[in-house]
Specification:
mainly alpha, single chain
């Protein structure tokens, strides 16, 4: 009887909190999963870089040092189109400048100190920022950042080497669909945010419309930067939250003493 009563009490107490071990494993699982999914698209970059005229060593060094896929593709595309190296580098830097904006938000969350600041700055990209900000707390955000950065950095560089070596046999990366792995994984990551409310969906649709309209007229990467204007429009259109009502300060005299109960008359 006692066991049945305790079981009913446990079932009627509502949903149970997730186990600490499961909660601690979630940021690592998210980071590793996204890192592996996006990192494999390095095969497409390695093949595209060698196909545009870069050597295998140049493609690998670019992934090691630059480590920002969109900027690397923009540089390879500019070289393949016959553009100057200076112009390609300038476009890649312009496209990678968004990571500096991510750094402004991530500094307070990650709190890097000393020499770790350089390593942390290397890892602040789209994917690590998105996974970190999706976590419920600062501690889990730091774990998610390290897991995503390590997995994606290793996978991206190994995939670049593989794609560069196999460029002659692989053919066009676009024909195999490898180039859509990164955008598809990123869309899956932000999909819960797009379903969160009407403003989020409006920002997503406006950003897509801006990018599609600008793509035929602007160099690769620039339409993505312009699409960020949709987020600014959404922030301006959303009313600021009202500050919480302040409670009146307690009286300096303290609470009024309790009045004694009247004596009973005999």
């Amino acid at each position: 009887m006692t066991n049945n009563t305790s079981g009913l009490a446990a079932r009627s107490s509502g949903p149970q909190a997730p186990a600490p071990g499961r909660a601690a494993a979630r940021p690592v699982r998210d980071g590793v999963a996204l890192g592996l999914a996006v990192g494999t698209s390095g095969i497409a970059f390695g093949a595209a870089a060698v196909g545009s005229g870069l050597s295998i060593a140049q493609a690998c060094v670019l992934s090691l040092l630059a480590f920002t896929g969109a900027s690397q593709f923009a540089l390879a595309g500019s070289v393949a189109a016959g553009g100057s190296l200076i112009g390609g580098v300038a476009g890649a830097i312009l496209l990678g400048s968004r990571n500096a904006l991510y750094g402004l938000r991530m500094t307070g969350l990650l709190e890097p100190r000393g020499p770790r600041k350089l390593l942390t700055a290397q890892g602040v990209i789209d994917e690590t920022t998105a996974v970190s900000l999706a976590q419920p707390g600062a501690a889990s955000a730091r774990v998610a950042f390290r897991a995503t950065f390590a997995t994606l950095y290793i996978t991206w560089n190994l995939s670049t080497l593989l794609g560069a070596y196999g460029a002659g046999r692989l053919g066009s990366p676009q024909s195999l669909g490898i180039d859509v792995v990164g955008p598809a994984a990123f869309l899956a990551l932000i999909w819960p945010q797009l379903r969160a409310g009407r403003t989020e969906r409006a920002v997503g649709l406006l950003g897509a419309a801006i990018a599609l309209a600008a793509t035929p007229f602007l160099p690769p990467g620039v339409p993505v930067i312009l699409a960020a204007l949709a987020a600014l429009a959404g922030a301006l259109a959303t009313p600021a939250p009202e500050p919480p009502a302040s409670k009146p300060p307690p009286s300096a005299a303290g609470p009024a003493p309790a009045r004694p109960a009247p004596a009973e008359q005999s």
